[in-house]
Structure prediction request, 332 residues.
Amino acid sequence: MKSYNDLTNLGKLRRLHELACAAIKQYDLNDPQINFYAFATNLLFRVTTATGERFMLRLASPGWRTFEDLCSEAMWLQALARDTVVPVPRIIPARSGELVLPLNRPDIPNVWNATLMSWVPGRLLGKYLTLSNLTKMGALFASLHIHGAAWKPPAGFTTRRFEHWLSRGEENRIVGVADAELPTGQRVLLERIHEHVESVYASLNRSDLRVIHCDLWHDNIKLYRGVLYPLDFEDTVWGFRAHDIAMAMLDLLETVGEERYPALLAAFRRGYEANLPWPAEPIEPFQIGRLLWKINWMARFQPKHLSGMVERYVPVFEEYEQSGRVILPHEL
Prediction:
C-alpha cells in the first residue's frame, strides 16, 4: 500500500473517505450514504439516511483546531439548541455519547477529529447582502452575545481568550522580530499600529468577556425562507463583543466595498441594538488588528511577498491613524 504522502490528492481523498465511513458506523443512523461535499480547510461529507435525513460529517484538518476547541464548539451548540431559538446546527452524539471522535488508522498520518451535525439548509448569506438581511444579522449577533454572557460552560470547555491580535498561539513574525525583512519605515509603522491595537485590547471592559463565535462573517451564515442559520462554530472562544462584530464587519467591507458598507453597517447595528446595547468600544481598532494578523500570516507562509503586502497596507494604516477610519487598500 502506498504511503499517504505519496498519494495524489484524489488518492488521499479516497483514503479519507474510508476513514469517514468508519466514523459513521459509530452513529445510530439508518443506512447512511456518504458523499464528498467540500474540502474548505476541513473535509466535509454529506450524509443521507434511508429515510431522507441529511447530516454533515466534518473531519477537522489536523493542526487547524484542537480537540478541546472542537469539543467547546459542540458544548456551546448543544446549549444554544437547548436554551434559545437560534437555528444552530445540532450536534449528533456518537453511540458512545462522544461529541467529537478522534480518528486514526495506520495508513493515514495524524488524528482527524470527526463531528456529525444536522444539515444546515439554505444558501450562503454573501449572495443576499441586503439592508433587511444585515438587520437580521445584527439581531443574530445580539442573540448569541446574550447567551454567551449568561451561559456557564461545563468542565472541559476552552479557557482560551481572544484578547490580542494574535491569540491562537501563532508565531509573531512582524513585530519586534529582528529578521523581518522590512524597510525601517514599514517596521516602525507596524510597531506603532501593534502598540495601539494591543492598548485597545488591554483597555476593554473585562466584564464584557463572554463566549463568542469569533468567525461569524456572512458566509458562515445561511439564508433559508427568510431566516438566518449560523454555522461553523469551530472558532468558539472567550472574547469580546466589539472584536466579534469587528471581524464580521471587516469581511463585509472587503466584500461590498466602501460605498455600500456604511448603510449595511448601520442596518446591522439597528438589528443589534433592537436586542442589546452596542458595545462602547469602536470596532475599527480590532479590524486593524485583523489586518496585522493577515500581514503576519504572509510573513509566516509567504515571506517573499511580505514587503509588497505591507507597502499595500501602509496607506490603510496611515488613514486609520489620521481619521480612525478603515479603508480598502486597492482604492488608494
